[in-house]
Amino acid sequence: MRLRVLLAFTVLSFILVGNARSQNSQELKDLIADIKIYLLTSHILSPQETKDLKAKLNEFMERGKDISSFKEMAYLLSNKLVRDRANLQFLLFDLEKLEKDDYSQKIAGIEQGYFKGCRQYSQKFISMTRKRRPYFNKPHRALKIGDYKRIIKTNSRFFIDSRLSSYGLWKRLKERLGQPYPLWLDKYHELLKILKTSDKEPEEIFSVSQLKFLKVFGRVYGYYSRLEGNLSSDLESF
Amino acid sequence: MRLGKLLCLVLAVSSVSLSASAESYYLPGGMDNLRGKFNHAVSDYLEAISFCNGALRDSAERQIEQIQRTISASKDDIKRIYSDMVHRMDDIYSEFPRYIDNPNEAKAVIDTLMNIVPSGLGVPEVSLAYSGLNTVTDLEGRYSTQKKVADLLKRAKEQLREIIKTSLAYNDWARFGDEVAEELDRLRKDFRKECRGRELGSWRYEDAATLEQAGVADVSLEGKDRASGGIFTGRVRNNTGEPVTVDFPAGAWALPGEFAYQRMFITEGDRVSVPPGETRSVPLEGFCADPKKYPPPSEGSPDIYLPPSTPDSFLPDANPFNEYFTCLPLLPSTVDRLREEGRFPPTGLPPAMERLTLIQWLTWNIMEDFNPEDGKRKIEEQVRKTGGRQTPEQIQQLNENIWAGIDLVKKEVTKR
User: Fold this and answer.
1) What is the band of B196 on the pLDDT scale with cuts at 50, 70, 90?
2) Which of A217, A230, B227, B393 is deepest in the core (most CB within 10 A)?
3) DSSP assignments along B318-367, one per residue
4) In sequence order, what are the residues at sequence separation of 6 or more whose Cβ sits closer than 8 angstroms to the Cβ of residue A61?
5) Would the CB atoms of B290 and A214 count as touching at under 8 Å?
6) Does pLDDT of B225 surpass 60?
7) Are residues B212 and A133, on separate chains, in Cβ contact within 8 Å?
8) DSSP assignment letter at B234
9) Amino acid B295: pLDDT
10) Are residues B255 and B122 in the same domain?
11) Are strands B228-238 and B279-288 parallel, antiparallel or unpaired?
12) pLDDT tens track for B347-404
């Protein structure tokens, strides 16, 4: 009798431990899927999102066991950082073109050098992300979990660190864009409306300045919408 | 089960290490240090088996190969030391006839010693060397009254002791070599058994910017003071022990770290495979995308970096220029295809220059306001610079044909 009870207890323990393990593994999979949502997105993560991401990454660093998921996470996080950095720089390159152009200056009521501070911040950010990236000198062995953790930890600072981060640059840019952006957007709407109602080629309808504005602000609009996460474009109806 | 096995193996390796560290070695090579490295490589291999990580396995294999090379070098060192000792013994042999009056007796002593320490590069059996010590002790008893011979025998004995130490060390290194070979064989079998068909590959992501930001590779683009054509050299250093492949695809952007310089994009790319720890360079063709900015200089070059090669795409809107912008990466291949099909109006330009002109002008047209008027001015400027004799009509015709080609590319590129 005692032996049967012992046997039943042992079997039950195995089942419970097995269930707990599979539940843990499912929870970890869900956690990884959650983190990926943040890392695959195109928009700049808000402070709340970066806070949530940080918490989830910490949990993953503690609970993760599989080297392949660490590797993937290290890749996705680094990729998100360089995508943000490149998108922001593309945006700034085109804002500089608008800032220097007479026609665009007039529309927005700004002067040359209006985005200079943002460009300086961006240069610092680019240089810092490259200088302070993780560095390995391990030609005799493959990277291990500890190394991937270092990649995650080091690169995640550039989302989270409030002094120099992708969000820091984005915040500055948005502030600066507060005045000119709506004015440029109105002009853009106006020109696109004309284009839509005409059978002619753009080159036949618009002046050189207008054409340039359409090209350059078109890209600014594309990058801005992407970085803001405003994917339900108000221009889709055109 | 696997964890248990792993623990057993780790314990086994630790016990090997403990027994080895009890010995002390006076020879170069530092066996203890090497055993530490071996234990490290074995634990890497075990981790590779646990996760079926092929890259980690390869890395552990390389570490062990290095250890085997060190063992082999240590054995060679010992052989050289042994050879020196044998020469020193030869010197001692040559002195015996001077102090033993009877030539036959002197020869007998030398033969006795030579049996213990044969000439040549081999290393004697330790048992033979030990028995030799007894023989020399016997000889010391026989020649204790002849001071010169006794001194010689004392020197021979000291030398023999050194030879014994050397022989012991050689045997230890040889045994260590066997252990390493056996362990490696066992680990390879375990890996095959546990991981057949489910190996994790090496770093499979090839995006240059991402690999660089992760620290896996150093990727640099070096400018050449030019705005089109062969404008930079791509350089990749692999910082890890696993193979890395970096893509420099046609159509990828290259961004300067400073806003004073122009954005560029690669028109003729390459894929570079870089073995562990090595550096590879590749010439890249590209174009400037910002007509009013400088190309990155070749010296004191500002950082140029590659943004992700597959950038996020724009949402389509009614602006046709945004569509052209997102098609920029397709320009080189579209121009090449149309040229092969002979669909461009003849420009009379050399083929390479025609290709460069089409791609460059179209890029500027998409990025800003470069138009046929600008094109005409460019040609006139070029004609003036080179002292060409083209008439205004010819210049006009050339410009029109280039723009007809550009219009054709624009139509083709948006058909995708």
Assistant:
1) low
2) A217
3) S-HHHHHHHHGGGHHHHHHHHHHTT-SPP--S-HHHHHHHHHHHHHHHHH
4) A149, A152, A153
5) no
6) yes
7) yes
8) E
9) 75
10) no
11) antiparallel
12) 888 888 888 889 989 989 988 888 899 999 988 888 888 888 888 898 899 999 999 9
Q: How confident is the model at residue B122 (pLDDT cuts 50, 70, 90)?
A: low
Q: Say if residue B34 is in the same domain as residue B148.
A: yes
Give A233 to chain B, closest Cα distance, Å.
8
Contact list in A for residue B51 (CB cut-off 8 A) is 66-68
Beta carbons of B214 and A126 less than 8 Å apart: no
* Residues of chain B with C-beta less than 8 angstroms from the C-beta of A87: 311-312
Read off the amino acid at residue B4.
G
Q: Is residue B154 part of a domain?
A: yes
pLDDT attached to residue B313: 53
- How far is CA B301 from each of CA B211, B258, B284, rounded to the nearest angstrom? 21, 10, 16
Looking at residue B307, the DSSP 8-state letter turns out to be: P
- Count of other CB atoms within 10 angstroms of residue B272: 22
- CB–CB contact A235 B59 (8 Å): no
Q: CA-CA distances (angstroms) from residue B349 to A6, A165, B57, B341?
A: 92, 49, 55, 17
Place of tokens 């006839």: B97
Do B221 and B291 sit in the same domain of this protein?
A: yes
B310: in domain: no
Residue-wise pLDDT tens digits, B246-282: 888 777 788 887 888 888 888 777 888 898 899 999 9
Closest listed residue to residue A118, CA positions, set A234, A8, A227, A2: A227
Nearest CA in chain B to A152: B214
pLDDT at A126 over 80: yes
Please tell me which residue of chain A has the smallest CA distance to B368: A212
Residue B61 lies in a domain: yes
Task: Give the span between the Cα atoms of B238 and B261, in whole angstroms.
Answer: 28
Please name the residue that has the structure tokens 């599979």.
A22
Give the tens place of pLDDT for each residue, A217-227.
999 998 898 78
Distance from CA of B117 to the nearest CA of A (A): 41
Residues B278 and B352 placed together within one structural domain of the fold: no
Instruction: Report how far residue B294's alpha carbon sits from residue B313's, in angstroms, rounded to the nearest whole number.
Output: 27
Q: Which amino acid, B257?
A: G
Q: Which residues in chain B have Cβ-Cβ distances shorter than 8 Å to A66?
A: 51
Mark whether B17 and B165 lie in a shared domain: yes
Element (H, E) at B34: helix B31-51
Residues of chain B with Cβ-Cβ distance to A136 below 8 Å are 215-216, 239-240
The verdict on residue B314 lying in a domain is no
Residue matched to tokens 């010169």? B148
Give me the residue from A123, A202, A222 closest to B258, CB to CB.
A123
Residues from chain A that touch B44, judged by Cβ atoms under 8 A, are 141, 144
| Residues B213 and B94 reside in one and the same domain | no
Domain limits at B398?
320-413
Choosing from B305, B328, B350, the residue where a domain stops is B305
Structure tokens at A188: 């853009």
Strand partners, B304: B256
Number of domains in chain B: 3
